[in-house]
Structures are given as structure tokens and as C-alpha cells.
Amino acid sequence: MDISTLTSLISAFRAETREDSITPESLGALLQRIVNEFASSANSGQSQSSSDWTWCKNQIQQINGQINTLQTNLTATTQTAHRANTLALDAGNNVQTLDGKVKQLEARLNSIGSSTGGNNGSTPTITIEHKNFIALQAIEGSLFVRGNLAYLREQGLVPYIFRYTVKEHRVNGPDGTRIKGPKKTGWHVFYGTSKILTDTTGLVQILSEREGTKGQYFSDPEFLFEAPTFHEDGYGNVARITVPYGKYNYDVHYKSKRFRFAIAYGLPAAEGNFSMHLLRTNLASIKVKVYQESTTDQVKYKWSR
Q1: Which pLDDT score, from 0 to 100, does residue 77 have?
Q2: Are 295 and 34 in contact (CB under 8 A)?
Q3: 3-state secondary structure of 300
Q4: What is the pLDDT of residue 40?
Q5: φ and ψ at 175, to 5 degrees?
């Protein structure tokens, strides 16, 4: 078996869980490539122990199934609180099962690598950061982080929240003055380490910047936004209701908009000194639906997929 190829595939697996929101399709494709690598080795007669390769292939297929089951549970629409709590428990169990299976696979692969000496006589070390996987689940108006939160806290990691927005960074111009640079659309950190907190249950709480509640934490996604602005026409009627998100204001007057957010855990950084290199988990994404309620004309905020 080509150990270096397997190692590069495992590295791709780690990058996928760290850099972007996880999906069954992307992870499933990577795991299938690893399975194909095992099959190729076995078919070409390179396998030192067919039982070892078969065991690892079976483990990977089971892991792939666990990832799909986890994602299905986390994204399912629940009709009752009882059903939601059942799915939350199942999702937590799936994370633990996935942890155990990847840990066994990791140990077995390293054992195989030691016995075969890799491709150049050295012993490769394969590490899968299974403990750094997180996902998000909305239950009855609150958002929960699912994953090995105790481990993340032990590592001194803190939660960050991101918006998918347009940024225009300043760069040095021809004469040395600072000018506007190219626009970049992507995930950008929203405030710093104080904007959100998570407790031992994974409940996400948001720091309010609004007058009257400033400095307090709430679980309602409303506090990810500034208060909406009501614009009247020349007759005193409401013509527009705008909600700010990034550099722009969006009208939600008798319409709805969904805004993208993501959460990840990383090393703490001073305000204004955040870098994506500090992250140690994947970015788990969620949307917030903002709309005007027809019966009360109030602006409502709701976690959404």
C-alpha cells in the first residue's frame, strides 16, 4: 500500500473538517478515495495482510455511514420538543461513536505502517483530528454546538462566530498611501472572542450591542443584528424595514431574508488580532431567517438551514 498517498488523503480529510462547513458529500468522497486506495493495494498484491486492509476498509465504510447519520439527525426538521431532544441525544451518541471508530482506525493504520516501514523505511504517523469536529443544531429557538466540547475547553479553545460577507481591505498604493484593495467575499470573524459563549450543554449565547441590553447575553439570534430601521413614505406609512448585515442593509418589509453565519473554535486572540490560522475546528454553518410577521408587523429572527 502507498502509505504516502493514504497520509495525503488523511490530511485532506483534516483540512475539510477544519476549513469549511462539513458535508456528507465532501467527506464521503474523501473516505471513498481512501477505500479505493486500500482496494488498489490489495488488487496489485502490495498488501502485507489482507485481513488488515479488509478491517480498515470496513471501518472507513462504517465511519462514512456515521457521518451521514449525524448530518441527517442534525439537519432534520423536528415537529415536537420530544422529537428534537431525541435527535439531539442521537447526534451526541453518533459523535462519540465516530470518535471511537476513527481512533481505532488511526491506531491500526499506524500499526500497519510500522510493520511495512512505509515507502522509504520510515514509520509514518497518521493523525485524524476527530475530536475537533463540531456541528450545529437548532432546538426551539436556541442554537446548540454538538461535539466534544469538554475536549475543546481542555485545549483552551474559544468559540468564534463568522458572517459570510464582503470585505475591502486597505493596501499600499503606488505612492505608498493606503488605498482600497480588492473586494473579498467569504467568512469573516464577527467581533472577537466575546461575541458568543457556549455553556456545557453547547447552548450558544450572543452578546447584545443594543441600547438597553448592551453587555448582556441572549440565545435569540436577534442579537446578531442591530435593531431594524423602519422607513416611512410621504404619507407616514412604513415603506421599508432594513436590517444591516455586513456592509449592506437588506429590506425585510413583507419579505424574508436568510443570512449566513458559522461557528468555529480556535485559540484566543486579542480584539482585532484574529487570524484564520488560529482555528482548530471546522466552520459549522447555520442561517438566520429574518422576516416581518404579518399579524403583528414585528421583525422576527429564527435559526434556519
Answers
A1: 43
A2: no
A3: strand
A4: 59
A5: -95, 10
